[in-house]
């Protein structure tokens, strides 16, 4: 919606996704982590293009999958530089409630960087991997995205490495249909 409304949007991808098949399915080859990293980068660009972004509006920081917490200072320096250069009016990033370690680390890194810079940036936090029973804070906003559902669906379809079988050793996709459906609801909620 932001792109459609003419706003300047930048997507920053913190990690390379190389270990999704290793952690979820124990697959280390066909594809290798390196091949998967290349695939995930291409998928992110294709999905961004479906959403109306150009490839130069997607920035890859290249930190190893599941290694962001151990690269905190280096990641914080990169994120701080991006924020200081762009001075965004709003930033969307994972919530501290997200159970994925890279998502939690991203939350801390972005919050830390924004606090350090003292920018008047609005913060919108979302949760992808939610703990059972976790809920939005009392300070949240809900956005009607019903006009974007078909575009979101087409963008999600670009993540073939996550939504389909790409290895002869796979018995299921990384993301199941039920999980994907959670992203195709008419409303999105953000802790603010």
Can you walk through the features of this model?
With 192 residues, this protein is α/β, with parallel strands linked by helices. The protein has helices spanning 20-25, 33-50, 72-86, 101-117, 149-157, 160-163, 177-181, and strands at 11-15, 58-63, 90-94, 122-126, 140-144, 187-191. The chain has a single domain (11-191), classed as Rossmann fold (3-Layer(aba) Sandwich), CATH 3.40.50.10320. Helix content is 39%, strand content 16%. A two-stranded parallel ribbon has the order 1-2.
Structural topology:
Blueprint: E1 11-15, H1 20-25, H2 33-50, E2 58-63, H3 72-86, E3 90-94, H4 101-117, E4 122-126, E5 140-144, H5 149-157, H6 160-163, H7 177-181, E6 187-191
Short description:
The chain has 192 residues and is of the alpha/beta class.
Provide key terms for this protein.
single chain; 192 residues; alpha/beta; Rossmann fold; two-stranded parallel sheet; 7 helices; 6 strands; 39% helix; 16% strand; globular
Low-confidence stretches: none
CATH topology: Rossmann fold
Radius of gyration (Å): 17 Å
Order of helices and strands: EHHEHEHEEHHHE
**CATH class descriptor:** Alpha Beta
Largest sheet: 2 strands, parallel
- Helix percentage: 25-40%
| Assigned CATH architecture | 3-Layer(aba) Sandwich
CATH homologous superfamily descriptor: LmbE-like
Shape: globular
The count of domains is 1
Beta fraction: 15-25%
Distance between the termini: 18 Å
Number of strands: 6
The chain-level mean pLDDT equals 94
- The largest beta-sheet arranges its strands as 1-2
Structural class: alpha/beta
Per DSSP, the total helix count is 7
């Amino acid at each position: 919606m932001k792109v459609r409304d003419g706003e300047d949007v930048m997507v920053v991808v913190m990690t390379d996704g190389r270990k999704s098949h290793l952690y979820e399915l124990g697959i280390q080859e066909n594809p290798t982590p390196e091949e998967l990293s290349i695939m995930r980068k291409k998928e992110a660009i294709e999905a961004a293009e479906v959403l109306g972004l150009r490839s130069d509006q997607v920035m890859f920081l290249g930190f190893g999958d599941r290694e962001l917490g151990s690269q905190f200072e280096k990641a914080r320096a990169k994120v701080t530089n991006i924020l200081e250069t762009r001075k965004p009016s709003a930033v969307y990033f994972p919530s501290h409630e997200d159970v994925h370690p890279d998502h939690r680390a991203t939350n801390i890194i972005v919050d830390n960087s924004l606090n350090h810079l003292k920018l008047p940036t609005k913060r919108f936090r979302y949760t992808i991997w939610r703990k059972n029973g976790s809920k939005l804070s009392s300070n949240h906003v809900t956005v009607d995205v019903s006009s974007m559902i078909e575009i979101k669906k087409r963008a999600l379809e670009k993540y073939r490495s996550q939504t389909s079988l790409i290895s002869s050793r796979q018995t299921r996709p990384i993301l199941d249909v039920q999980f994907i459906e959670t992203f195709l609801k008419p409303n999105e909620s953000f802790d603010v």
